[in-house]
Design a protein that fits this description.
Number of strands: 0
Largest sheet: none
Number of helices: 17
Helix content: over 70%
């Protein structure tokens, strides 16, 4: 059975359970002899949860283990005896047979894979119907168990609230475990990289040239300092020079000077910048901003200026993160107690003096937190630097020269044709781990600043 159809069927059974339990609770309520502890809808919610949740949990677990069962069933077929012994080739043929089994009318390129299509389709159908049957039985069993507990004295509200709390806890754990999984996967591959390249050579080396690696000493060509500098220069210097003034000034205007009618349409318009796909910013940087920056460099005397410059990528990146700075600054300034602003104005200070002497200092923790979050967003940006920045790893203070970032190099390293176990490929995971740790620390600092700020004014 199709997975979507199965989920839809389980949801339908949950709706039926909710309606049935609600109707039974209503009959108890109309009797008048006994007072219901919980509302009829809460009884229905309790039965619906017992109908849907066990079945969906089983479906999730079955979808995780059924591919392995299908693979074992296919390998037991006589046609599987023709599969090569090499694991990579065998898995490739099995994957091709699986793809053809899913697509109606498709044919396999390899004759061996074509012979495995029918066994694969049969095994998928068998285990699919088996899982669907067990899931439906669990739904009926859960509904029957919950329905027998529907009575006037049953505390359905308490049980339903506990169920919702468990669901929220699971959602939180999924987010935490996902982050932990990303970190551990990066850490594992990074440890393999550091077994071949000393960590000191990687973190403190000043020469980055992964195209030419000395097999005897790969650390000589994999010094990441130029990448860290390019990331900091583009994302934390040039981009912040653009984002902080414009973001802060727009927040001040929207909170202190703009009429309510202007604020209603101007603030959403400004925040729309955060919803623009980064590839659009990349095209804008590569086709519009970069040529303009190159012409500007030529007018300053740089005859051989390149269109791939740190300034072009940094300018567009700064525009992209203006909403991050503006939104946090807006909220921080608006959260400053009105009494502080009114007291300053009552003492004879002008609006500009009140803003500079009272509001900004009071809102500074929130503004700083917004800047830190914007920096973490900027240094993790990929598409803009891929399309507008260069791949040359330079340590320079000249914004018109080429520079590269960690994210740009990760893309280049993982899209090459090198072996996965080579230092060149594994260097991408080391760079990713370093970038992950940096952005994590920036977010932790920003959240601590926000927490301190909220405690001061709530």
């Amino acid at each position: 059975m199709n997975g979507f159809a199965l989920v839809f069927l389980i949801a339908g059974l949950g709706l039926i359970g909710w309606l049935t339990a609600r109707a039974r609770a209503n009959r108890f309520d109309r009797g008048g002899a006994k007072r219901l502890h919980s509302l009829p809808g809460q009884h229905g919610m309790y039965v619906a949860m017992w109908t849907v949740l066990p079945a969906l949990l089983f479906v999730a677990g079955w979808n995780a283990i059924s591919p392995g069962l299908v693979k074992e069933a296919v390998l037991e077929h006589p046609a599987a005896a023709q599969l090569p012994t090499f694991a990579f080739e065998r898995n490739a043929l099995l994957a091709e047979a699986k793809r053809v089994a899913h697509e109606e009318g498709a044919t396999a390129f390899d004759p061996v894979a074509e012979q495995l299509v029918a066994p694969t389709r049969a095994a998928q159908s068998r285990y699919g119907w088996m899982g669907a049957g067990v899931a439906i039985l669990l739904a009926f069993a859960g509904a029957a168990f919950a329905f027998t507990r529907v009575r006037p004295s049953f505390q359905a509200r308490t049980q339903a609230e506990r169920g919702v709390m468990v669901l929220l806890l699971i959602a939180s754990l999924i987010a935490i475990l996902t982050t932990l999984g990303i970190f551990l996967s990066l850490l594992w591959e990074s440890l393999r990289f550091f077994q071949q390249v000393p960590i000191t050579d990687f973190l403190f080396g000043t020469h980055w040239s992964p195209q030419v690696i000395d097999a005897a000493d790969p650390g000589k060509s994999l010094g990441a300092v130029p990448l860290f500098w390019g990331t900091f220069f583009i994302g934390a210097v040039i981009a912040m020079i653009v984002a902080i003034p414009f973001g802060l000034m727009s927040a001040i205007y929207l909170t202190q000077y703009a009429a309510p009618r202007v604020r209603r349409w101007m603030k959403p318009t400004l925040e729309m910048l955060a919803g623009v796909p980064t590839v659009v910013y990349g095209y804008f940087a590569a086709l519009t901003v970069a040529p303009a920056v190159r012409d500007l460099a030529v007018s300053f005397g740089y005859t051989y200026a390149s269109s791939e410059s740190a300034l072009a990528a940094g300018l567009v990146m700064g525009v992209m993160i203006i909403p991050f700075v503006s939104s946090m600054a807006d909220d921080s300034i608006a959260a400053v107690p009105t009494a502080m602003r009114d007291g300053s104005l009552a003492m004879g200070a002008t609006t500009s003096e009140t803003i500079s002497k009272v509001l900004i200092p009071a809102a500074l923790p929130g503004v700083v937190a917004g800047v830190l979050l914007a920096v973490s967003r900027a240094i993790g940006e990929t598409m803009i630097v891929v399309m507008a920045a260069s791949g040359a790893a330079n340590i320079t203070l000249n914004p018109f020269e080429s520079a590269t970032t960690v994210t740009k190099q990760i893309v280049d390293l993982l899209t090459g044709e090198s072996e996965f176990d080579s230092p060149k490929t594994l260097a991408a995971f080391a760079l990713g781990l370093t970038l992950f740790v940096i952005t994590l620390l920036l977010n932790i600092v920003a959240l601590r600043v926000v927490k301190k700020y909220r405690e001061a004014y709530e």
